[in-house]
Amino acid sequence: MKILSAVGACAVTVSLVGCAALEVQPYQPAPHGVSIIKNQYGSYSVDSIRVVKTGSQASGEALQFCFAQNVPGITGTPLLNPSKTRITAQGRDQVTFIVPMSMGTPLNYEMAFSLTQSTVNGQHVYEFTNLKIKGTWTANETPLPGTSEASLYIDSARAKAETISGAVSACLAAEAS
């Protein structure tokens, strides 16, 4: 009896350890500027992507112009705060990454986001939030996954955020000169 009890306890212990190993893990370490949170479903998603570029304070008109010209898929008019130091817009863009071990097959998805730009101590801070993706394989929009298995989504989304913020910063620099 004692042997069967020990075997039973061992089986329970092994199965519990096995279950813990199957638990969804966040992408760690998260790339610089990427914030990952545990969502209400027990999985992980990207809360925000923050990109910082050097630059000086821009006028409200320059901010609106550069956002309108460089934020892809912009919806509506970019909104300035009353002091014209921060601007927010909704956008969406196609994002692609190469699927590993598929002989270079690209995977395309659409990323929707809210983008807020502010200037802090001579730096342009771009905050991408409300990140949602919709693949070419589904009609549903879902939060941008932040799990370890979704590292390619995170890396490609961060690269897209860098591209968009770089284009806006370059436009702001051109408008200032």
Entry summary:
The chain has 177 residues and is of the alpha+beta class.
Give an overview in words.
The chain is α+β, with helices and mostly antiparallel strands and 177 residues long. It is 33% helix and 37% strand. The chain has helices at 2-22, 60-70, 151-176; strands spanning 34-38, 44-54, 75-80, 86-98, 106-120, 123-135, 142-143. Strands 1, 2, 3, 4, 5, 6 and 7 form a seven-stranded antiparallel beta sheet that branches. β6 and β7 (142-143) form a beta hairpin. The longest helix has 26 residues, at 151-176.
Main traits of this protein?
alpha+beta; 177 residues; disordered N terminus; 3 helices
Layout of helices and strands:
Blueprint: H1 2-22, E1 34-38, E2 44-54, H2 60-70, E3 75-80, E4 86-98, E5 106-120, E6 123-135, E7 142-143, H3 151-176
Antiparallel strand pairs: 1-2, 2-6, 3-4, 4-5, 5-6, 6-7
Helix pairs in contact: 2-3
Helix content: 25-40%
What is the number of beta strands? 7
* H and E order: HEEHEEEEEH
Major sheet attributes = 7 strands, antiparallel
Q: In angstroms, what separates the terminal alpha carbons?
A: 86 Å
Low-confidence stretches: 1-19
Shape: elongated
The value of Rg in angstroms is 22 Å
Average predicted local confidence, pLDDT:
86
> How much strand content do the residues show?
35-45%
- The number of distinct helices, counting runs of at least 4 residues, comes to 3
Oligomer: single chain
- Helix-and-strand structural type: alpha+beta
